[in-house]
Every structure is written in structure tokens, then in C-alpha cells.
Amino acid sequence: xxxxxxxxxxxxxxxxxxxxxxxxxxxxxxxxxxxxxxxxxxxxxxxxxxxxxxxxxxxxxxxxxxxxxxxxxxxxxxxxxxxxxxxxxxxxxxxxxxxxxxxxxxxxxxxxxxxxxxxxxxxxxxxxxxxxxxxxxxxxxxxxxxxxxxxxxxxxxxxxxxxxxxxxxxxxxxxxxxxxxxxxxxxxxxxxxxxxxxxxxxxxxxxxxxxxxxxxxxxxxxxxxxxxxxxxxxxxx
Length: 237
Hints:
Elements: E1 3-8, H1 17-24, E2 28-33, H2 39-43, E3 49-52, H3 67-81, E4 85-88, H4 90-98, E5 103-105, E6 111-115, E7 118-119, E8 139-143, E9 145-147, E10 154-158, E11 166-169, E12 173-176, H5 187-193, H6 195-200, H7 205-234
Parallel strand pairs: 1-2, 1-3, 3-4, 4-12
Antiparallel strand pairs: 5-9, 6-8, 7-10, 10-11, 11-12
């Protein structure tokens, strides 16, 4: 049985809709809490697929959160080997850092809420992303940091607020700044867990909840097709 490992940073930012896609393909999915895992655990990890989830910290805050050093080292090893790896939000930023790109607070403020993606110049490098670029589809954005495009990476997607929303290295490595994995029901945990961030950004939670009720179901349907296409290509022999 193939193994997938998802590294989490807060319990409620989990693989979401990706979990079902993995189960349908016969993966055994394990979760690892980066915050409490012993440092030596990162050196022994070698799953068939590594997924690194989001969280409310910066990839550059290694002095405050020392486990990030081990995470970045793990990602550097996997990316050098082109081992199947997926990063979402903070996970994408950690992948950028592992590839030597700068990660920093975004100059255009926090991008929190639902909105469309536009295709990057190299979007053909990831055919599955067409599912999330469909006209009228909105995805969830929830970040304050951004990153430079790593050298040699394919630029896949952008928004009007931040140009680097997704990049790839071949078929096996994919980094997504946005959140295709979410469901409307699970986002109720986010509204509580990120209450301070939402308040600081003056985000109206009832309005965000109403937007999620409208946009999350079509995203979940599109994400199901997206996960299927990407996994089949990334995990091909």
C-alpha cells in the first residue's frame, strides 16, 4: 500500500477533500503535527507522497519556530530528488524557501476570501490545474505572506493581488498558495482558530461564511477532478 504523509501546523488545516482522493487510490494517509514532532523524526520520513499543509506562521520565522528548519531540510531533500510533494499555503512557502527563493510578508495586504485564479505563463506544465481555472470558479485565499518564484520552477497561476499563486517542478512537485482542499463545514473551525487574524484584517465573518456557502461546493467538485488528475500524473511510474 502506498503511503501519504500530511504535515500539519494547526489541527484544523488538514488535507480536507484531498483525503478522499487519496483513499480512492489506495493510499494510507498519516498525519504528523510539525509543532510537536521530535526533530529527528523529519530525517526518517520517506513517504510515497508528502503533503505540507498551511498554518498562521511565516516560513522565515525559524528562530521562533525551530521545527521549520527540519521541515525545510526535508523538503529540500525531496525536491532535489523530485519525489512527489505537494504544498498548500505555508507548505508552498516552505517549498519556495527550500528551493532558495525569498519568502516575506506581502506588500499588498492579506488576501483572505474567495476569488478566481488566472493562468500563469507556464500553466500547461500542470494540466490538472485547468479544473481550478474554469470560468466562474472561485478558490479560497488565506495568506499574508508571499514568495518569489523559485529558479527553474514553472509559474502556474496568479491573482490580481499576488502574482505567485502556484508553481511546479515537473509532474511530481506542486506548490499552491491558495486552498483547494477546503469545505464549507470545515471552515467553521478556521473562523474560530484564526479569529485574531480575521479581526486584525477586519474581515466580516458572517459575510465570509455566506461566500463559503456559495463558493465551496463548486470548488469541492472541481477539486475532486483536480486531485484525481494531479495524483494520477504525479504518482505515475
